[in-house]
Specification:
47% of the residues lie in helices and 13% in strands. It contains 10 helices and 8 strands. It has helices at 22-38, 50-54, 60-67, 73-92, 102-111, 124-133, 148-151, 156-167, 179-187, 218-231; strands at 9-12, 19-20, 97-98, 115-120, 145-147, 172-176, 191-195, 211-213. It starts with 8 loop residues before the first strand and ends with a helix.
Length: 232
């Protein structure tokens, strides 16, 4: 386990970490394929939902290669456009849920002086839409919502490196539920907290994390333990 110093900042993945993605994603996913069929771009049954769920945490291009391996770029691009629009429409209507304790825990972390950021492989409009429509935006740092879609990074390692360097951060925790989060944290020398509650990660996905949590609220216990260690 890495050294657990009191964090100056935390960087959060969004889907499967803060946001219960499937509550928004799956209705939009099925509607997307209804639209693709009606537009004559897709035939047959909607691909099983595990293809889109298992792709969470990947870059969007990789997700659509997995969901639509037999279709070209134009169809994948149209599917991407439809899915994003449907999810943003859903957010505006109040659809989608945070994991239990997320808002309260983030608020408590801010009160403890921890600076909060996101780093997601999703599109800018989606990442910012989730944070804004869930009422979390005031808790995060100004210009602290980072996404691969906005910064055109090819990996979360690069995105997190950019974030850390741009904000001059020294002691940072990376918090996420996928192997890409563990890799991004470790490659940038961060303490990594693996979130073990989303339910759709792959076996051994969190190997390499410094610690795992079974609920989001456990972050406060880790921070308070670190505070005690730092002041001992």
């Amino acid at each position: 386990m890495g050294a657990r110093a009191l964090p100056e900042a935390m960087i959060f993945d969004v889907d499967g970490t803060l946001f219960r993605t499937e509550t928004l994603l799956l209705p939009a996913y099925y509607t997307t394929f209804d639209r693709l069929r009606s537009e004559g771009l897709f035939r047959g049954e909607t691909p099983p939902e595990h293809y889109i769920i298992s792709g969470l945490g990947m870059l969007l291009e990789e997700i659509w290669e997995q969901v639509l391996p037999d279709y070209g770029r134009d169809v994948r691009r149209r599917a991407d456009e439809l899915l994003l629009k449907l999810q943003l429409d859903g957010l505006k209507l109040g659809e989608g849920e945070l994991y239990e304790g997320v808002e309260e825990t983030l608020r408590s972390l801010r009160e403890r002086g921890v600076r909060l950021f996101t780093a997601s492989n999703g599109l800018e409009a989606y990442v910012k839409g989730v944070i804004q429509h869930q009422g979390l935006e005031p808790l995060f740092e100004p210009e602290g919502l980072y996404s691969a879609g906005e910064y055109r990074t090819r990996s979360k390692v690069d995105l997190v490196r950019l974030l850390v360097e741009k904000h001059g951060l020294k002691n940072v925790w990376m918090v996420g539920d996928r192997s890409s989060d563990v890799e991004a944290g470790k490659e940038n020398g961060l303490f990594v907290v693996g979130c073990d509650y989303a339910g759709f990660r792959k076996p051994h996905e969190l190997e390499g994390a410094d610690v795992r949590i079974a609920s989001f609220a456990e972050l406060l216990e880790l921070v308070d333990e670190s505070r005690e260690t730092s002041t001992a």
